[in-house]
Structure prediction request, 130 residues.
Amino acid sequence: VSFKLDLMREDLITYYKTYHILIIPSIWREPTGQVILEGMTAGIPILHTGVGGTREILEEGKNCLLFSPDNPRKLAEQIVRIAQDKNLYSQLSRGGKQTVQERFNLANMVIDIEEDFKRILSCNKEAGVR
Prediction:
């Protein structure tokens, strides 16, 4: 394990591309982490436990491979699977990039925020809140 403390944000994607897979063995229900989006942007297939908010964007076999946090054998099987299947590797790489492009571009994020505000205003209006 090595820690790179001197990387600038603009260098991260290039750095990620030096690796073949990104394993995120989360055991607690964290929100969607930036590291997953950065890895997907770089085209690195993601292996993840699917725990927490990240589950909303992860799709087994489309943009990631999943394993249970308490099952190291399944993680090992997923590593072997992706190492032996070049088509799967390519699919996960493309799927991750596509997920970020479709779900996390500025235009779509603005639309989502506006819809959230409309929903909040509608609920407040119905409840008589000004």
About this structure: The two ends are 54 Å apart (CA to CA). Helices lie at 12-16, 34-42, 72-84, 86-103, 106-126. The mean pLDDT is 88.
